[in-house]
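so ive been stuck on this for like two days lol. basically i have the seq below and the ligand is S-adenosylmethionine, smiles is in there too. i just want the complex predicted, nothing fancy, no docking runs or whatever. if the output looks off dont worry ill sanity check it later, just need somthing to start from for the group meeting slides
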Amino acid sequence: MAAQRDDVLARGGETEGLSRQIDLIRQQAAACRELGSPFYEALLGDLADDVAAGGVGARVLAGHEDDAGPSALALRVMAAVHRLVLTGRAPALAAHYPSAGGDGNAAAAWTAFRETLEDHMDAVRAGLASPPQTNEVGRSAALFGGLLQVLATAGQPDLPVRLVEIGASAGLNLLADQFAYRAAAAEAEPWHMTEATDVVLDPAWETRPHGIPEAVRVVERRGCDLSPIDARSEDGALSLLSCVWPDQTHRLERLRGALAVAREHPVELVRAGGGDFLDDLQLRDGHHTVVWHSVMWQYVPAAEQQRMLDRLEALGTQSTADRTLTHLAFEPRRLEPGGRHRFVVAATTWPGGEERLLGEAPPHGVPVRWGDPRAR
Ligand SMILES: C[S@@+](CC[C@H](N)C(=O)[O-])C[C@H]1O[C@@H](n2cnc3c(N)ncnc32)[C@H](O)[C@@H]1O
């Protein structure tokens, strides 16, 4: 094995690519530590060592030495392996994956991880072609909580709501009214509009939003994505599950719950960029049209971002008291020049068209702290 790597190193130009690849895996390991996955931190550390030593990891990742950093190669390999675990094709590894009921012992998992790479080399290499794509249900706390705040001050809070999402992934957040939300500082019962739900965001909010309306009547759920995922198909569900880090069991639990909800409540998803999608959107009399999005804006080219904002502004000029429009975003932004990015809930409602910053949350959306984050 070491001879293979020496061969790679001997071919000069590839040396830099290989050491960059190893660096990127180590960076991903550090990111996993910071973002709360010690399990992946350890496995990725082992993988980086293995690639450096010319082990099976080097063969799995061969040909990807020059992949760009944002392609997240390390997460692609982890998702491909996770898929094998979740489908029962790697039982020895599953014994250590918390997502499959395993013991979470990353040190013990490494041997089985290496064997899985060896036994399923073709499947893992094929999996490297798919970028990791998630649909984070926790962000419903920010989006739906934001909508509740908007309705609390709306002229006509009872208008039926059309939910329209750009960059919806599998459209799970379009089901936000079907989830339950527990406020950390509130009474024991979570707030919900449905009788029974498979998703309880707990805690969803630090405090309940003020002035929650009695009911929100969602009459339409529609979204777009460049790569929409069918949450109702086995393959779509597996794609989403395999991209969640296996020791983040709370995220897995709410994702599994939302997948169950999705089987009962279809959403309409189209394969389109946000710019084209919004061009086709019209307001409807007697309805409140809500265009929302979370953690997708940064992936949209600047020209398309501007096109979407212009389109929303144009739709806003067509709004009336009983044909309203809200643009609701949960996206990272700097609140002062040079400041750090913060994940902010922002809403603009027409008629009017003035933006309000409603709250702030961690990247996965829970728990939301309500109030203008600039005031803190
Ligand atoms: C990080 S994911 C977030 C998905 C979902 N909004 C969530 O919060 O769980 C970003 C999503 O944006 C989609 N996307 C990126 N650029 C887009 C564009 N120009 N138009 C529509 N969707 C886009 C990606 O395909 C991906 O599903």
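The chain has two domains: 2-127, 139-375. Confidence is low (pLDDT under 50) at residues 1-6, 8-14.
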